[in-house]
Design brief:
- The protein has 13 helices and 18 strands.
- By secondary structure, it is α+β, with helices and mostly antiparallel strands.
- Strand 9 and strand 10 form a beta hairpin.
- Helix 1 packs across helix 6, helix 9 runs antiparallel to helix 10 and helix 10 packs across helix 13.
- The longest helix is centred in the middle third of the chain and has 44 residues.
- The chain is elongated, with a radius of gyration of 35 Å.
- The termini are far apart.
- The relative contact order is 0.06.
Length: about 500
């Protein structure tokens, strides 16, 4: 609870509650010795072992007097606000003394005739921001703005209207009866729409029942209210808000009103979600790599042990040696994919494009890969009149092999795979079509992500890097890649690359 003189009626109740419940420390210093005539709980918490009210600041807090008193004097003498950035103080917290940083604002107020001007001191705790910078983190925090506190009801209303948060009050039964202008500007609702339970209409439908239930519980118990929920902005976008409210009590302890604020915390919330998503992605990656690289190693070890037991049987040795070579090649390909991803993401892969005859390039590649892949199932439809392609030959081979291998793997054993091309939009669009099981619509947007393997795929081989590497190689050429699919009817992958101008 903030400390103040109950006989002082110069600060209206709305302003007093805004100050009493706000996160920033606020004190009012008057007279030639700067006697503390008002101090809220946040300011008092900076020096909880001292009784500040009614005492000069230099006597209450001698440790900072050498800095505060000159600043107070300067603000009073010049009549202009003064800001002192990030003063370091030793503050008692949680039973121990800790270093804390505060921004102090010294704001002279109108003086009574014959008296020196009082000075309002705002202390905003900057400890979190300072420590975040020291840790090298970029944390977004909403900046609290405290405006000049006047001694009239009009000044208090202006203060409530000017702050960036939504400010509201209710009656003793918890029915909203006033919102500041920011509510209407933010939600696009009229001021009257917020009265009664109407304001819940702007809360996300998934959050509204929880918010209403918790609000009813707070009103019934007269305990402070706090909840995170999504609030609809005027443009229809929902953003996360932190809503808090505290009861106002009469002298006999009865709740007469509730005073609340709603602060937009969407940026902070999304930053936390991004950090969590990155952590989960890293853990998934480690699990995937651990599992898929261990599988061929397990095969190699098992086959080697069997060879040791029966080394005299030549056919067994040959068969098992072939299994070892296949597993080793598979593991080597996975490692190569990992290395390629690191190089591509770091921009360390050099692309050296040159004019290529796509039809001749594809025919030569098909002949060269016969035996290694089922190239008898690959049909080419490549017009001889196509303009020459501008591509890096080894990288183009990797793109085509990845797409054709993928199409062969996910098609029936006797199904044909088509490699076609056409001139389009000043470039050449290469299409690889299969007759496989197809891909669900909700999986298509993620096909080219790192380590993604579609749940509908019948064969879960590799690390899920083939299409991701293909996308990076296509983009490194200045091209683009896309996929179309219909479950049960197959898929087609389109790669558009630059062509040599005719």
């Amino acid at each position: 609870m903030a400390h103040h003189d109950d006989t002082d009626r110069s600060i209206p109740w709305i302003a007093r509650m805004l100050l009493d419940t706000g996160p920033a420390g606020v004190a009012l210093l008057e007279g030639p010795d700067f006697v503390c005539t008002y101090v809220n709980a946040s300011f008092q918490a900076m020096a909880p072992s001292r009784a500040m009210l009614g005492r000069p600041v230099a006597r209450v807090w001698p440790e900072i007097a050498s800095r505060v008193v000159p600043a107070l004097q300067q603000a009073r003498d010049t009549g202009h606000p003064l800001e002192a950035m990030e003063w370091r103080l030793d503050v008692a917290r949680n039973g121990a003394t800790e270093a804390a940083w505060f921004t102090f604002l010294f704001h002279p107020l109108p003086a009574r005739p014959g008296e020196p001007a009082p000075v309002a001191v705002h202390a905003i705790d900057r400890t979190g921001a300072v420590l975040a910078r020291a840790r090298g983190e970029e944390l977004r925090a909403g900046r609290e703005r405290l405006l000049e506190v006047e001694r009239t009801a009009r000044a208090a209303e202006q203060l409530a209207e000017a702050i960036p948060q939504i400010v509201w009050t209710t009656d003793a039964q918890g029915q909203a009866n006033w919102f500041n202008r920011h509510f209407a500007e933010y939600t696009g609702l009229g001021a009257d729409a917020g009265r009664g339970p109407g304001w819940l209409g702007a809360v996300h439908p998934d959050d509204a029942p929880r918010a209403a239930e918790r609000w009813a519980a707070s009103v019934a118990s007269a305990e402070p209210y706090e909840i995170e929920h999504r609030l609809r902005r005027a443009d229809g976008v929902y953003r996360w808000h932190l809503t808090r409210a505290a009861p106002l009590r009469s002298s006999d302890g009865q709740v007469v009103k509730w005073f609340g604020t709603s602060t937009d915390i969407d940026d902070q919330k999304r930053a936390q979600e991004e950090v969590q998503a990155a952590r989960e992605q890293r853990e998934d990656m480690l699990r995937t790599i651990s599992h898929d690289l261990r599988t061929p190693l397990t095969v190699v070890a098992a086959q080697a042990q069997m060879l040791e037991r029966r080394p005299e049987e030549r056919q067994t040795v040959v068969r098992r040696a072939g299994t070892i070579r296949t597993s080793a090649a598979r593991m080597s390909a996975m490692i190569d994919d990992l290395v390629d991803v690191v190089r591509l993401e770091a921009g360390n892969v050099r692309i050296e494009p040159r004019p290529l005859d796509l039809a001749a390039f594809a025919r030569e590649l098909r002949e060269r890969l016969r035996g290694a892949l089922a190239m008898e199932r690959l049909r080419l439809e490549l017009p001889e009149a196509l303009p020459r392609l501008l591509a890096d030959p080894p990288r183009l081979e990797r793109i085509l092999v990845n797409l054709v291998t993928n199409a062969l793997k996910y098609s029936p054993p006797d199904a044909e795979v088509l490699l076609a091309a056409e001139e389009r939009d000043g470039g050449i669009r290469i299409s690889v079509r299969d007759r496989g099981v197809g891909i669900a619509a909700d999986e298509l947007p993620r096909l080219f992500e790192r380590f993604y393997r579609a749940p509908s795929a019948t064969q879960q081989e590799g690390l899920g890097l083939g299409l991701y590497i293909t996308r990076l190689l296509v983009e490194a050429h200045g091209g683009r890649i896309a996929a179309e699919s219909e479950p049960g009817r197959g898929s087609v992958f389109h790669v558009t690359l630059p062509a040599v101008a005719r």
